User: Fold GNAT family N-acetyltransferase from Phytohabitans kaempferiae.
Amino acid sequence: MEVLLRAATAADSDFCYALHEAALGPYVTAVWGWDEAVQRGFHERGFDPSKIKIIMVNGREAGRLDVERRPDGIFLGLIELLPAYQGRGVGGRLVRDLIAEAAARGQPLSLEVLVVNVRAHALYTRLGFRETGRDEVKVRMRIEVHR
Assistant:
């Protein structure tokens, strides 16, 4: 399976919105309820193609990856995959690549995951992330791998 990242463009806005609804819609609904107008507004205010990579699997758009490279570490802001690509190793491969990058930089990799997204939480735990805090909505996690 070929997994590549490409830069997002303004033309990816509709794909990213539909992806968000398909990938995280059930979790958003469980926490806040899905309000189409609220979600559409949130997307329109936050969609910045310069900060987004589109995940391509075998030449097809499969998801989205948002990563912030900060002076003190790498932050995985968002990884979303269409349901057809979940559970096939794509997300794990991309996160392992980020772990390797963080290790090469001598920096931690951190993220937040919704409490209700137990499947993602389990993946991050298997990959070596440790919980650093939580509230009723999100779990903060971090991994530090030394070179």
